Design the sequence.
C-alpha cells in the first residue's frame, strides 16, 4: 500500500488519522506543530510522540518535502531562486527579499499550459498539476532554510486557478492556526484571468488577495500576449472582477508587464484606464523581463514613467517597480526549471560564485542556521534595496512577481506594504508567524473571512 503524503493532509484529516490510530486528537496538533512550526519532517525526531506512534506514522505516511537541486542568490537584491525536485518533476520557487520580511513565490503547476509568448514557463510546456503537499512543501523548504517567511504569493510556475482544488488546500493548510498560521491577508493568488477560478475564489470566502495579470488593454493585443484571453475576453473578465468585488469588497491588483513598443504606449495606458473604470484596482507596472525573445524587451524607464503618469492622472493608484531577481533568472517570466545544481550566489556585478553543495534536509529547529539574505551573517538590510519600489502613488496590495501573468505587490515583485499588519513597521515581528521552536504560537486575526457586509460599498468606482 502506498503511503499518504503528510503535507497534503488538512488539520481535520490529521485529527481523523489520529483517532483512527486510537490516539487523542491533540496528537494531530503535535504532528502539525512539528511540520509547520518547527520544520521537523521526520517522525522519529518528534520527541513528544511515543516510539510506537512514531513507528506507525512512519509506516503510513511519507513527508513529501522537495529535494533542493539548486539555489541561486541575487547579489543585487537578495532574491533567491530555488530548483526543487518532486519525484522527478523539477519546479522553481523564489524567495523575494525586502527589509524585514521575505515573500515566498510558490509554483502551482509543473510548467504551464497557457503558453504566453513572453514567459519562459509558458514556453516549457505543461507536465502536471502540483499536489497540496508539493505547494506547502515549497514554502516550508524555503522557510526551513531562510527563516520566517511573512508573505506568500502563488505566482510561480503555472496558472493557480487551473489547479484550483489543490490551491485552496494549500492555502487552508498554511493559514490554519494549528498548522502554519500564515495570515490570510498575507497570501495573494495571481491569475491570468481564469473567470471560473476568480468567481470560485470570491465565493470561497477565504479573504486572500487577488492579482490579475492583464498585460494588454484590448482583446486584439491580449489575444497575442495572454492566449487564454481568447477564452475569457476582457469584457467578460471585467464582469467577473466586478462580481468578485461585489462579493469580497476587496481591491484587486492589476499586474501589467511593460514590453518596449509592444504594450507600453500612452494611448494604451489611457485604454487601460478606461477599461478599469468602475473597479477598485491598484496597478502594478513592471518592466518585462528578458527571456531571450527579442520581441519582448523591457520597456525603458521613461516609457514606464509616461505610462504610469497617465494612469495616475486618471486617478488610479499606481506602483512602478523594478523586477527583482533578474540577475539569477528569478524575475517575472523567467522561471524555466534551469537552476544548475548546488548553490550559487551572484556577485553584485552579476557573475556567479558557485561550487557549494546543496545542504542536507533541515533537521530540528535550530539545527541549521537560516540564510538571512543579501547581508552576510544573518543581518537584514537596514534600508530598501536600491531601485526597489520606484515611484508609487497609493500603496497596495496583491504583489507582482512573475513576468508572466503574476507578480506580487509592493516593492516590485514583493507582497505589498499593505499586507503588513496595520501600524506595524517592517522591522517588527509578525505575530502571525511561527513562534520559537518548541513553543508554537497561534496566529492573530488570520482566520478565513466571510463576505463583508456592504462589501461592494467599499469599491472606489471611477
Ligand atoms: S505568464 Fe503565467 S499563465 Fe502565461 S504561460 Fe507564464 S505561467 Fe502560464
Sequence:
Amino acid at each position: 500500500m502506498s503511503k499518504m503524503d503528510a503535507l497534503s493532509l488538512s488539520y481535520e484529516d490529521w485529527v481523523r488519522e489520529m483517532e483512527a490510530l486510537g490516539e487523542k486528537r491533540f496528537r494531530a496538533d503535535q504532528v502539525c506543530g512539528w511540520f509547520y512550526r518547527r520544520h521537523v519532517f521526520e517522525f522519529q525526531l518528534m520527541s513528544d510522540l511515543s516510539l510506537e506512534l512514531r513507528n506507525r506514522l512512519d509506516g503510513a505516511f511519507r513527508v513529501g518535502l522537495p529535494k533542493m537541486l539548486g539555489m541561486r542568490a541575487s547579489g543585487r537584491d537578495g532574491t533567491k531562486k530555488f530548483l526543487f525536485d518532486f519525484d522527478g518533476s523539477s519546479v522553481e520557487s523564489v524567495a523575494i527579499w525586502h527589509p524585514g520580511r521575505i515573500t515566498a513565490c510558490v509554483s502551482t503547476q509543473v510548467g504551464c499550459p497557457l503558453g504566453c509568448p513572453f514567459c519562459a514557463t509558458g514556453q516549457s510546456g505543461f507536465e502536471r498539476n502540483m499536489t497540496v503537499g508539493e505547494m506547502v512543501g515549497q514554502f516550508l523548504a524555503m522557510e526551513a532554510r531562510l527563516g520566517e517567511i511573512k508573505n506568500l504569493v502563488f505566482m510561480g510556475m503555472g496558472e493557480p486557478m487551473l489547479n484550483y482544488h489543490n490551491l485552496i488546500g494549500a492555502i487552508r493548510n498554511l493559514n490554519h492556526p494549528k498548522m502554519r498560521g500564515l495570515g490570510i491577508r498575507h497570501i495573494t493568488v495571481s491569475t491570468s484571468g481564469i473567470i471560473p477560478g476568480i468567481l470560485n475564489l470570491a465565493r470561497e470566502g477565504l479573504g486572500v488577495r487577488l492579482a490579475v495579470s492583464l498585460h494588454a488593454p484590448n482583446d486584439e493585443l491580449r489575444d497575442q500576449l495572454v492566449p487564454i484571453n481568447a477564452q475569457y475576453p476582457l469584457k467578460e473578465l471585467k464582469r467577473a472582477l466586478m462580481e468578485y468585488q461585489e462579493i469580497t469588497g476587496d481591491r484587486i491588483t492589476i499586474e501589467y508587464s511593460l514590453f518596449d513598443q509592444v504594450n507600453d504606449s500612452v494611448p494604451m495606458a489611457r485604454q487601460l484606464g478606461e477599461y478599469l473604470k468602475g473597479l477598485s484596482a491598484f496597478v502594478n507596472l513592471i518592466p518585462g523581463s528578458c527571456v531571450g525573445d527579442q520581441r519582448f524587451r523591457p520597456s525603458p524607464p521613461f516609457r514606464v514613467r509616461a505610462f504610469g503618469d497617465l494612469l495616475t492622472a486618471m486617478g488610479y493608484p499606481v506602483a512602478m517597480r523594478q523586477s527583482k531577481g533578474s540577475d539569477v533568472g528569478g524575475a517575472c517570466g523567467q522561471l524555466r526549471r534551469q537552476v544548475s545544481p548546488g548553490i550559487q550566489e551572484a556577485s553584485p556585478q552579476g557573475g556567479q560564485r558557485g561550487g557549494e553543495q546543496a545542504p542536507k534536509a533541515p533537521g530540528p529547529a535550530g539545527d541549521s542556521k537560516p540564510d538571512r539574505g543579501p547581508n552576510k551573517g544573518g543581518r537584514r538590510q537596514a534600508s530598501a534595496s536600491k531601485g526597489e519600489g520606484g515611484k508609487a502613488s497609493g500603496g497596495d496590495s496583491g504583489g507582482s512577481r512573475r513576468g508572466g501573468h503574476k507578480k506580487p505587490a509592493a516593492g516590485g515583485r514583493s507582497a505589498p506594504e499593505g499586507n503588513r499588519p496595520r501600524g506595524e513597521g517592517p522591522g517588527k515581528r509578525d505575530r502571525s508567524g511561527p513562534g520559537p521552536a518548541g513553543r508554537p504560537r497561534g496566529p492573530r486575526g488570520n482566520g478565513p473571512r466571510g463576505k463583508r457586509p456592504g462589501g461592494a460599498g467599499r469599491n472606489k468606482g471611477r
Notes: The radius of gyration is 21 Å. Residues 112, 114-116, 119, 121-122, 157-159, 192, 404-405 surround iron/sulfur cluster (CB under 6 Å).
